[in-house]
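Two quick folds needed for the group meeting slides. Do the first one here.
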Amino acid sequence: MAKVKDHLKSAEEFYALGTREYEEGRLKGDLTRMREGCEKVFHAYVEATAALVQKRGFPEPDSHGERWEILDKTGQRRLIEIGDSAFLYLHQYGYYGGKMRPEVEKTMKDVKEAIHQVRKETAHTS
């Protein structure tokens, strides 16, 4: 099982790679790269919240619904909002649907905020 710091490292790596792929795809008109970038940024959110869930002593969730419930139990309203947007605009519309809605770029910035929030809340963890 990955440690809290490993989840955070993965989150940051997925975020960096995803935003780079998205931007390169946008500049070249390459929808496939944009879609891949969206999915990597969504996965960055999943990894970041996995770190927080683990830090709070919960088992790693098996589904997005389970993740939502754990975040709700721990009072993480903002992370839930970001996750809902990331699921909808990055995962569903962006990756699966190939639809680059205007909300995609704002949602990517929100995922960065989520990573920073989780990093602060899990500080001093092995």
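Then this one, please, same format:
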Amino acid sequence: MHESLSDALRALTGESYDKKPLATLRGKVWLSYAMQLSGLGPSEFFKRHVRRGRTRSNLEKKWECGEVAPKELSVAGVEDSLHGSRWVYDLPLWDLLVDKPIGGKRLAGLVDGYTFTRQRARMWLFPGDDKRLENRNIPVALYPDTGQLVARNDLWGFIGCVLRTRLCEHDRLAIQHLEASRDMFRSLPGALKQSWLRPYASELLLVLHILRRRLPLSFVLFDVDEQLILRQADDSSHQPWRERRPWDPHLRVFAHIDDPILPAKVIPGLEVRELSMKAAARRKAHLVKKAAHQDLVGLLETSVQPRRPD
């Protein structure tokens, strides 16, 4: 099982993993979805589905601001009152986003639950996919490919990319982890099209950056254009599925979309040394030129001084 630098530091200092930030994010996202499902404002929602005849408490405000995460019992109580509200709280995403090692058995179980094999071909299959595949609303995605998960442009495609990233981390597949973590960010706009998730984009991006740094190669070899991700999330015409984009008959290509992934440039050591020597030579030449300029100014000031009368 792979351990990151943060895992090693926690083991060294005896400090435990802080569950609160992710737990509160999970609670806020669940609450956002439940209120949207109910169609009620915050006051009426809490009155009808949380208090249910009980005395008003400060718990409601603490949930909304993320000071306190909802407990399992509270989520179950809301589900009893508002059927269909719980599934967001139970998403595997929350377990996958934790900044600590995940067991191979747990990851393998999730993969088995979200894939199926037909004629020796293994494919991704998420809840509700049967009808969507039949209607060609989503592309067929062969496991372990994550490119077609990005093309789904939805929440489950994003979850699949996160799952694949964590699996590559567990198996220490650095190159595969690099590609999967890139697709994790590319698939995020599709997930953020859910209006109940969109307000928490910044918090989610922070968690994803923490995850990708668990393997140093993925942390240093690319950066992310976060503003582009947010623009794509808010753009109803954003279409990562290449075959669904407009066709240019002149260039004979599908329309291009911008990539939020900004690859790093790797420079060989000899080239770095050469660049460093050139920079040092430029600095030296600049100092020589500056000194010569100061000498010239001093000479001119001396030559133009007025003569004192005898």
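Slide caption for protein two: Residues 98-242+255-266 form one domain.
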